[in-house]
Design brief:
Bound molecules: cytidine-5'-monophosphate
Number of helices: 15
CATH topology of the largest domain: Rossmann fold
Strand content: 15-25%
Helix content: 25-40%
Structural class: alpha/beta
Largest sheet: 8 strands, mixed
Strand order of the largest sheet: 12-11-8-13-16-17-18-19
Length: 422
Amino acid sequence: MLSLSMKNANILLAITGGISAYKSAILARLLIKAGCDVRVMMTDGACEFITPLTLQALTGHEVHTDLLDETAERGMGHIELAKWADLLVIAPASANTIAKLAMGLADNLVSTVALATTAPILVAPAMNQAMYHHAIVQNNLDTLIKFGHHIIMPASGEQACGDMGVGRLPEPEDLCERILDFVSSKQSPPLLLADKKVVITAGATVEPIDPVRFLSNHSTGKMGFALARACVRAGADVTIIVGKSVQLPTPIGITRLNVGTADEMLTACQGAMTDDGDTIFIATAAVADYKVANVATQKIKKVDGQDSLTLELIKNPDILATISQNFPHAIMVGFAAETFDTENYAKGKLVAKNLDMIAVNDVSDQSIGFGSDDNAMTVFFAKQYEQDKVVLSKASKDNIAQQLVACVGQVLAHRATAQDER
Ligand code: C5P
């Protein structure tokens, strides 16, 4: 628990090696302006991008770079620094430093102080988008969260290397605001989904035609996995039920069930669900609306002289509508991908499937939706909730997922108040 005000907050700013290290100089200045006492430590990598002298001039204090420094040991060595800090902010946090923290290595000043301090730790990852998306980096971040570190999500956009994607260090003003919010909240942000159970469907279902062919779609499962991760980070117990074509690795702390058809997905969902207000069902899967009526047991052969082949399709179960009907006390979250008249279609589904909220995106915009790292959505709430809608403008799927979790938090809070009033 952090218990201090901005006026006397001792903020230890750790800068690691990355092009965005220059933003940390501005961050240090903004924090000092806000009344914090700021000391800085830097890795060797950080010193390649920005000089300790810059930070020394800005903070008015010696900048710490070495773990074993005789002069530092007499002044402020690593244990003193660790004890001095009310809050350790690692910004930018490189993939290398994140890996060290996740492993518990202590081979430089930053990684050693991170182990030695009892202060809360805010980690702001910043790196190339491919590095950020690498499963090892994501697993390391999940490990840090498990150990109580707090992550400031990177922003998306153009990167110094020319790539577009997620991994930019947020602007110093944004970082400063996040840090000050954290300090002034006087405690770790409450976990929105603590003691909640979340069941998520993700990816495409696969409907067989014969032993070698199937009907499916382009869903990659990225949004569902981003949500699963955000829900775990918010304290939930998460089960994700995934179409078997999804290639994504399973984030730490999540139970994964792989399924093929819509019927199999429905059976798995029924088994995973509980009918109470602490259970949340989130349907991100792109479920095939129709399946083949009579799946051939042998491969369908091409017939000479026959230029067309007719497959009879019959309707699949609507998983979300069925779960909503069978588990009326649980919270239902639907998704809708539309190409026109998005609001009307979304609101129609909200009512027809008896949902608490629905997130709709316009998939006619190619830069969001299927396969993309970004998304933009509008969330509509059922009429019993005070709010009608929330617009989530274009951001990384991780960021959108975090905001969707906040929307689920609003539904939970509203339900809790309604219950108290009864
Ligand atoms: O009716 P529509 O398919 O547009 O509804 C989309 C929402 O319903 C999504 O949340 C999707 O995961 C879910 N759905 C489902 N089972 C189906 C079709 C859609 O769970 N058969």
